[in-house]
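Closing statement on the zinc ion sub-project.
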Amino acid sequence: MILAVETSCDDTAAAVVSVRGEVLSNVVASQGLLHARYGGVVPEVAARRHLEATGPAVADALERSGVSLDEVETVAATRGPGLIGALLVGFSAAKALAAARGLPFAPVDHLHGHVVAATLEPEPIAAPYLCLVASGGHSFLARVDECATYTVLGQTLDDAAGEAFDKGARLLGLGYPGGPAIDRAARDGDPEAFAFPRSAPGDGLDLSFSGLKTSLLYRIRDMGPEQLDARRGDLAASYQRAIVDALAARTIEALEREGLERLALGGGVAANSELRERLRSECEARGVAVWVPPRELCTDNAAMIAAAARFLEPMPYPDYLSLDASARLVSAA
Amino acid sequence: MVSPDRNVIGLDTSTAGVAACALRADGRFAERVPSPESLLGRPAHARELMPALAAVMEEAELGWSDLDLVAVSRGPGSFTGVRIGVATARGLGDAHGIPVTGVVSLRALAEGAGGDAAPEGVLALIDARRGEVFAGLYGGGEELWAPAALAPEALGRRLETLAGPPLAVGDGSLRFRAVLEAAGIRVAPEDSALHAVRGLSVCRLALRAPDEPALPLYLREPDARPMA
Ligand SMILES: [Zn+2]
C-alpha cells in the first residue's frame, strides 16, 4: 500500500493506492473558496491552510481506505513543481511520517503524477501513449514509453490553458475559477460569433495563449457595458472554442508525428466538456483510443502521486532525511 | 531537573537555525544547538531538520516508537520555518499516535537564557523581517509581555517602566544590537549560545504545559487583500 500526500498548490490531498493501482481512497480538501475572495491563489494563505488540513486529510485517507498505518509500505509526496511554501508542508509531514515508521519514501514530480493518472485501475492505459496535461498551472504534451518517466514534446510558452480560462473569465466578469465559469456561460453562446486567434508557435508542438487573452481584451474594450452583457455568451463560447481548437490541433499533430495510438488526458482543463468531446471524436476518426480519468483524478490529487510512486524506486530510510522540496523541479526531458 | 518520566523530542525552526533535542525519561538528553553564525545565515530547515532529529534520537539511544511526546516551537518567527517544524512534528506524532505540544519560540528562547544569566529578566527577540522584531519579555518564569511584532526603536520606551534593563537575546538582538544598546538594553555577546532557541527548552516547556496546541503563532496576517 502506498500513502501519498500532495500540497503543491491550493488543494490539500492524501490518498491510499495499492501497488497494483487500485485507488482505495482519494481525499481532497479544496481551498477554492478561500482563494476565490482574492481572485487567485495567495501562496501564504495556501501554505497556512495546508498546515491545518494535511493531518486530517491523511487520517481521512487512511480511514476511508480501511488501511492501517501498519499496512502502508511506502510513503510518497509531491516534491515539486509548485508553490514552495505549500509544497514544504505536505513534503515535510510525509517525510517525517515515513521516517518515524522507518518506511521507504518516494519524492514525486507533480507533473509525472498528472501524466500517469490514467494508469490507475479500473481501466489502466498501457504505454506507449500520449498525454495532454492542461490545467491552471501547466499545459504540455508528453510521450510515455515506460511509466517511470516521460518526454515533454511541447508546452505552453506563456499562460497555461487554465490560466487563459481564468484571465478570460476575469475580463468577462465571470468569476473564479474561470474554466467552469466560461464552460457554463458558453452554453448559451455562439462559438463562431467571434474569430479569436489560434496560435501555434513554431514548428514544434508548443502552445501559446497570451495572444488570445489580449485579443479578448481588445474585443471587450470596443464594446460598451450593455453590448458586453448582450454578447457575453458569444464571447465565452468563441473564446473557449479557440482554446479547445489550439489544444486539440496540437494533440492530433503530436499523435500523428509520434505514431501513437493511445491518448490520455490530465489536468483540470481535461474536465472541460467541449475539449473532451472534440478529442473523442477526432481520435475516433483516427482509430486512437482515449482515456479520460474521472474528474477527481484529473484535477490535483494525491492518488496520481501514488500512481507515479508505483513506477519509482522509493528511497530507503534514512537516505531521504535531507531531501528538500523544489518549486521548479524538472525531472523529465 | 527532575526526570521527565517521558521520552520527548523537541525542535525549533523559527529562526534560520535548526534546534533539536531528544530528552529521555531518565533525564539524559542529546541536543543540537544552532551556532550563532547559522542564526544569521540562509535557512535550510527542510534539509537540516530531519537529519538533526535522527541524530539526537540515535545519540540518546531512542527509537522513534519509544517517543511519548513531540514538542515543537510554534513561533513567532520565520513563517516557512515554523510550518516545516510544525508539519514535521505532526508527522512524527501521527506516525505513532502520540501527542504534539506547541511552545512559544520566544518563551523557549528566554528559558535558555533564564536564571543566573539574567536576574533582571530576559527580552527575547526574533527577527521578524521588514525592520521589526518579534518580542517577548520574561522574568521569574513569568511572561511579562505577550509576544508582539515591534520596531526595535519602540522597545526602549516600553522598557522605561522596568526597574533595570533586561538581557536581550535572540537573532533579533544580534541584528539590531546598535539600536538596542543605544536605548540602554544589554545584548548578550555575539558568540553567546544564549541567542539560539534550544531544543531542550522546547522539551521542558512542553512538559510543563502539555496542552498548548501545535499551531503556528504568526502574529501577522498574509500580505493579500480580498477583492472589493
Ligand atoms: Zn497540477
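Residues A 110, 114, 135, 137-138, 300 surround zinc ion (CB under 6 Å). With this model delivered, the sub-project is considered complete and its resources will be redirected to Aim 3.
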